[in-house]
Amino acid sequence: MAEPTQPLHQLLEIGAKHTRMLAFIVAASIFAAGIFGGVYSTRFIAFIPLALVVPYFQTWMHRRLLKSVPTQALAVTLLLDGLITGFGIAALQYALVPMLVFIAMLNATVLSFGSLFLWIFTGFFCLLGALFGGLVLGLDHHVTAIPTSMTLVSLIGAALYFGFSSFHSREQSRALLVAKNQILQQQEEHFQTSRKLIKYLPPQVWESIFTGKRDARLQTQRKKLTIFFSDIKDFTETSDEMPPDALTEMLNTYFEHMSKIALRYGGTIDKFIGDAILIFYGDPTSRGAKEDATACVSMAVDMRREMQILRQKWQSMGIERPLHIRMGITTGYCHVGNFGSESRMSYTIIGRDANLAARLQSVASPDEILISHETYMLVRDRILCKEKGAVTLRGIAKPVQVWEVVDFTSETQETSMWVEHELNGFAMHMDINKIRNYDKERVIKALDQAAQKLKNTPIL
């Protein structure tokens, strides 16, 4: 659809101006026909130039009102139209056909640009104008018979006026439709752009910004968080042995799977640093320190299980060096929020416990999850842990009491019904709770086939 040649507000203003000008030209023509037909005295000839000047005055006044009282400008202009129309009806000595033409043009103008409320008040002002005009002009009678020429001029003028009004309404509708389509197109473009940009922010952050709960300005606050830090053991050596394309694909697959798990547990993904991941719980949303810590450790356990599956997948793709992750978790107070400058900021955390999580990860063994004593006290009733004792960490002044996450407690294990076993060349990871009823027989059949194949295959 073609764009309008002029902005919508200009089109509306020009249309109103031309419509009003045409109405006054029709009025001047009716007065001229009445004077020529001998209905009115020649002293009424002064109304003809006056009718041609008034619309210019109204346009000037309307623009001034838009600057001083923009919300009342339209109402004042339309009410003045009503007064002038009423005065014109009185000047016509209340001749029936011209009077009906005047009233029809006034109604069309008001209903095109104003509301029903304004239409009622404009009609009232028209009546006042007619009464006031009768008093001023001293007219105590009305024209009972008008010449045919005056009737024809009135009807032709009305036809021209309503024809032009219809044309203007069509153009206005077209402009509105084009404007609507442009707005919808811009909204779609903004939506697509937003979908691209939100991938650079944690979902919790952009959601709080779009809902107005958070401003995009420099601000931080001190909050109790549970921080998770992980990396892939010996990733540098592995990357040296792999082509860049294969390395990129493997790393993106790893991040994709780990991110889905983090989001499932409600974690805020802070950043990816090489092969490392920084995630925290407690901002911008929190379920309480205990639930946040439990969700974070549960996420780490699921990530460890997911890595077993990914490890088998990568080995089947010819990646000989097995990949293992190390994880560290701690709970404590950090400053969280927007850091940087007004032109470029980053949503992240700063504090001792953020560094502590990274230090715990650095001393963890492959596939080991180490947590601080503060985190252990929050999760010990739901997570089975083993005490590792006090550990000296680089950059930390005092030894830190450390616990190793073993698995969920027996009660939780029974609820999740997770079955896993991993040997060289064999890996089984099954969560019975996630198996759908219509897939149960297929799973049993696949296990039977695998077992039968293993029995019938001689292994040296």
Provide structural commentary.
By secondary structure, the protein is α+β, with helices and mostly antiparallel strands. The protein folds into two domains: 8-189, no CATH class; 221-416, Nucleotide cyclase, GGDEF domain (Alpha-Beta Plaits), CATH 3.30.70.1230. It is 58% helix and 18% strand. The protein contains 14 helices and ten strands. The strands form two sheets. Strands 1, 2, 3, 4, 5, 6, 7 and 8 form an eight-stranded mixed beta sheet that branches. Strands 9-10 form a two-stranded antiparallel sheet. A hairpin with a 4-residue loop joins strand 4 and strand 5 (345-350). Helix 3 runs parallel beside helix 5. The longest helix is centred in the middle third of the chain and has 50 residues, at 148-197.
- Count of strand segments: 10
Terminal-residue CA separation: 75 Å
CATH superfamily of the largest domain: Nucleotide cyclase, GGDEF domain
* Largest sheet geometry: 8 strands, mixed
Estimate nothing, just give the exact number of structural domains. Answer: 2
Mean pLDDT: 81
The topology string of helices and strands comes to HHHHHHHEHHEEHEEHEHEEHEEH
Estimate the strand proportion. Answer: 15-25%
Look at the helices and sheets and give the structural class. alpha+beta
CATH structural fold name of the largest domain: Alpha-Beta Plaits
What global shape is seen?
elongated
In DSSP terms (H or I, runs of 4 or more residues), the helix count works out at: 14
